[in-house]
Amino acid sequence: MFDMMKMMGKVKEVQEKMKEAQATLAQIEIEGESGAGLVKATVNGQKKVIKVSIDDSLVNTADKDIVQDLIVAAINKAMDEADILAKEHIQKQTEGMMPNIPGFDLGNMFNG
């Protein structure tokens, strides 16, 4: 027999585990490089850019820190906008298919 309260308890439990997993992902750092190490990017497990490093031979050293920070900010802003667009698209495509359950956000299931 279908037990709605038990199912809702499981949903709540899954949501809590997802929050814990997201918090853990924020602590993971991954580095990628190009140009034989001339440019390096560090991201966390939530796909947020943490740091960009550019070798001194590629830029004016006086402006290097500003350029690196601006690159990080621009990439993260674009990623945030992409997340919003993806969530809106998923909601539009699944409209009417899932009941509106308070606290249950299907769109979050598809974000990195």
UniProtKB/TrEMBL annotation:
<dbReference type="InterPro" id="IPR004401">
    <property type="entry name" value="YbaB/EbfC"/>
</dbReference>
<comment type="function">
    <text>Binds to DNA and alters its conformation. May be involved in regulation of gene expression, nucleoid organization and DNA protection.</text>
</comment>
<dbReference type="GO" id="GO:0003677">
    <property type="term" value="F:DNA binding"/>
</dbReference>
<dbReference type="GO" id="GO:0043590">
    <property type="term" value="C:bacterial nucleoid"/>
</dbReference>
<keyword id="KW-0175">Coiled coil</keyword>
<dbReference type="Pfam" id="PF02575">
    <property type="entry name" value="YbaB_DNA_bd"/>
</dbReference>
<feature type="coiled-coil region">
    <location>
        <begin position="4"/>
        <end position="31"/>
    </location>
</feature>
<keyword id="KW-0238">DNA-binding</keyword>
<comment type="subunit">
    <text>Homodimer.</text>
</comment>
<dbReference type="InterPro" id="IPR036894">
    <property type="entry name" value="YbaB-like_sf"/>
</dbReference>
<keyword id="KW-0963">Cytoplasm</keyword>
<dbReference type="GO" id="GO:0005829">
    <property type="term" value="C:cytosol"/>
</dbReference>
<protein>
    <recommendedName>
        <fullName>Nucleoid-associated protein SAMN04488029_4054</fullName>
    </recommendedName>
</protein>
<comment type="similarity">
    <text>Belongs to the YbaB/EbfC family.</text>
</comment>
